[in-house]
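Write out structure tokens for TetR/AcrR family transcriptional regulator.
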Amino acid sequence: MQKAARRSQSAARPPGRPREFDMDTALDRAVRVFRERGYHATSIGDLTAAMRLATGSVYKAFRDKHAVFLAAFERYTTLRQEQTHSAAARGANGREQIRNVLLSYVERSQGIEGRRGCLVVGSAVELSALDPVVGARVNAQLKTNESFIAGLIRKGQADGSIPRHVAADDTARLMICITQGMRVVGKARLPLDGMRLVAVAMKLLA
């Protein structure tokens, strides 16, 4: 995934002398701005200030704000996917792994992290209907997340921790609705009783 990101980033800029900044660090800073402000409310000036780069450096590396956003989106989804997989890996069986994934969403939907919001959810609301490129990436990421959870459900059914009658695909779709809803609640700064919500969600696997 990182190799693909580097290829897409290198393709976004013309050949020339090597960069004098760390791409991942710069993109992490751009991600934070887009998460907090959204796409349309973020200017190139906001990005250059956050990324600590000159305007010319940003344009050389990315061409325009849209290209910065796409690179930031890819960086964000790559890191979030790694975090989700890491949370799941701490479970001893499929059921525990799904619970750990849900708890990881609770953690990231509260406090400062929750108020910054999810770039996937924000992009789905703000851009998907009008920007087919972003819309395709949002849909692909949601499908990836859904497939991961469905795989954990099937793993749980194989190891005996989840009953066979549970519909893996339908339940995974519902859990995606729950996890993305958590991010919306966190962004809106509404109270989130995460542990109670996870306990209710886990009843889907009964």
